[in-house]
Amino acid sequence: MNPYQKKRRWKFFLLIFAILIGIASVFYTDSFVKKMEREEAAQFQLWVKITERSMLLYDNDNFTSVVEDVRENTKMPVIVVNNDGTILSSSGLDSTKTWYPDNDKLVYDSLYFVRELSTMRKQHRPLVMNIMGQEKLAYYKDSFILTQLRYFPYIQMGVIFLFLLTAYTAFSSARRDEQDHVWVGLAKETAHQLGTPISSLMAWTELMKSKFDAEDDPLIAEMENDIKRLEIITDRFSKIGSKPILEDHTVYIVISDFIRYFKVRTSDKVKFSITGDEQVRALLNVPLFDWVIENLLKNAANAIENEGSISVNIIENLAKEQVFIDVTDSGKGIPRSKFDAVFQPGYTTRKRGWGLGLSLTKRIVENYHSGEIFVKESELGKGTTFRIILKSSLRYEPTTT
Predict the structure, then answer these.
(1) 3-class DSSP state for residue 398?
(2) What terms describe the molecular function in GO for this protein (predicted)?
(3) 214-255 tens-digit pLDDT
(4) How far is CA 383 from CA 329, 331, 362, 386, in A?
């Protein structure tokens, strides 16, 4: 299992754990809310019975005080109405809207009562009260505390989710910055370390040519080509972390030059071809862009088990002033579920691979060339196409008629 798969598995386990905590919190709070609902229903029934009894013993001062105590301690709002819906009395409602004095009269906000009564009818069935031989209907609404508790777990989960999202974003950003610093330091140190042996190799080849009169020796020429290649690689590493200089280049020429170098160092069973617009131009840093093409071609060659082909097609999108570069191989293909994963650091299907090639390729294309790279299409057993999108350095004026 590579590091990327391990990281995904840990993220999955942590997500499942967080979901289980949230579900447990919701169930616990729900059981607590139901218990409060039963207590409030019992309290309401007690209120109804005491109110009925108070009408029979209205002249008993001791009982009247008990009734007042019960009403004051009743937390839920209550409204009593006639069978025709006429409001008779209320308890626990907003005092600024219920039976407040106005011009020596007690008035109430009728719309407020209508809204409250409508809410009560939706929440609970009424209890029938027998007052002085007449039946009345008593409604009640959940207390404010109960309402808060009912929504509390969802608010809690929302707050926890926002906190985790903020923390994850902050830690991910810090980790990426740390990785970038390590990557830049490692790249520049590698470039520095390669400088000395490359200079030594250049001196040795010059000595061999002069000592053995081998100016035209093909072996020495190939050695010099590889030394030049090492110089290019060193230059690439030295540019990591610095803003590269982008220059106007013909895309077809840049890619064909690299393919010419690369194909002689690859199996003869793999055939290379380049097609498309030969005149399209883009702003490129050639050493870094060669690295992009090299990584794509190496992956394509590794995906071909026996004989196969690798083609590069260059297309210009005039409407968007973009350049499309499609690199297609006839290899084993990539599952659709892995289209994004292949660009993650550490992802590889090779036993001896580090899984950094496509991650580096994506960084060079997007961060240094302001472009895009993605898996355009792939089919298992038939091949894969990667697409690079760059900004064209040519500008076209719209034609007018």
Answers:
(1) coil
(2) ATP binding; phosphorelay sensor kinase activity
(3) 888 888 888 888 888 788 888 777 777 677 788 999 999 999
(4) 5, 4, 20, 10
